[in-house]
C-alpha cells in the first residue's frame, strides 16, 4: 500500500508549493500545471496508470482532480476500479469509524457533495468572468484576446493552402503546429470551411 499524491494548478505561472507541503507524506507525487477542465493532463494519466490495489490517492482538495461532476466521477471510478481509495485532505476525517464499509459509504457521500460544490464553484467563476466581459464590452473597454495570426501570416496562409489542397484539419495541425480548434475558427472567420 502506497500513498500517491496528486497536485494541480491551472496555469504554469501558479505555484504548487502549498499542495506539495500538504502531500509531503506521500510516497510519490504527480503534478500538473494545466486547467482541471481539460482531459489532457499528462501527470494525472500517469498517476492513474501507476496506482495499484490498496493504494491511497491523496489530494489537497477535490477540485484538484477535476472541475465538473462527470470528470470527477470518471476519475474516481478509474481509481476505485483499480482497488485504490481516495483521501481528500480538506474533507472531514473518518478515522474514528471502525466499520470499513460504513467509512467508505460515508466518504463516498461526502465526496459526492464536494463534487457538486466544485462544479458549482467552477460555473460561478465562468459566470462572473462572462459578466465582467459584458460590462467591459458595454463600456467599450473589451477587445477580446489578441488573435494569434493575422490574415496574411505566412504560417496561417501555408495551413490554408494545405487545407484547400485536401489535407485534413488534423493533418494540417501536425504539419504546421497550428491547433486544430484554432485553425477551424480561422477557416470559419474567412468562410473557407468545406
Task: Give a brief rundown of this model.
With about 190 residues, the chain is an alpha/beta fold. The chain is about 50% helix and about 10% strand. It has two domains: about 5-120, Resolvase, N-terminal catalytic domain (Rossmann fold); about 140-194.
Can you describe what's shown?
Strand 3, helix 3 and strand 4 form a beta-alpha-beta unit. This protein is 49% helix and 11% strand. The chain is an alpha/beta fold. Helix 5 packs antiparallel against helix 6. The protein contains 7 helices and 4 strands, in the order E-H-E-H-E-H-E-H-H-H-H. It has 2 domains: 120 residues, Resolvase, N-terminal catalytic domain (Rossmann fold), CATH 3.40.50.1390; 55 residues. Strands 2-1-3-4 form a 4-stranded parallel β-sheet, covered by helices on one side. The mean pLDDT is 85.
Structure classification: alpha/beta
Q: Are there runs of 5+ residues with pLDDT below 50, and where?
A: none
CATH topology of the largest domain: Rossmann fold
Can you count the beta strands? Answer: 4
What oligomeric assembly is this protein in?
A: single chain
Amino acid at each position: 500500500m502506497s500513498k500517491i499524491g496528486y497536485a494541480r494548478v491551472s496555469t504554469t505561472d501558479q505555484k504548487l508549493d502549498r499542495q506539495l507541503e500538504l502531500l509531503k507524506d506521500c510516497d510519490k507525487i504527480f503534478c500538473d500545471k494545466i486547467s482541471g477542465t481539460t482531459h489532457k493532463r499528462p501527470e494525472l494519466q500517469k498517476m492513474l496508470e501507476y496506482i495499484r490495489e490498496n493504494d491511497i490517492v491523496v489530494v489537497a482538495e477535490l477540485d484538484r482532480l477535476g472541475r465538473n461532476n462527470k470528470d470527477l466521477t470518471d476519475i474516481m471510478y478509474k481509481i476505485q476500479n483499480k482497488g485504490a481509495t481516495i483521501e481528500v485532505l480538506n474533507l472531514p476525517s473518518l478515522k474514528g469509524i471502525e466499520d470499513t464499509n460504513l467509512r467508505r459509504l460515508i466518504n463516498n457521500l461526502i465526496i459526492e457533495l464536494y463534487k457538486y460544490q466544485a462544479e458549482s464553484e467552477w460555473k460561478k467563476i465562468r459566470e462572473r468572468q462572462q459578466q465582467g466581459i459584458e460590462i467591459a464590452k458595454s463600456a467599450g473597454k473589451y477587445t477580446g484576446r489578441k488573435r494569434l495570426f493575422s490574415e496574411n501570416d505566412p504560417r496561417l496562409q501555408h495551413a490554408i493552402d494545405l487545407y484547400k489542397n485536401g489535407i485534413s484539419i488534423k493533418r494540417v495541425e501536425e504539419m504546421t503546429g497550428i491547433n486544430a480548434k484554432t485553425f477551424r475558427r480561422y477557416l470559419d472567420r474567412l468562410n473557407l470551411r468545406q
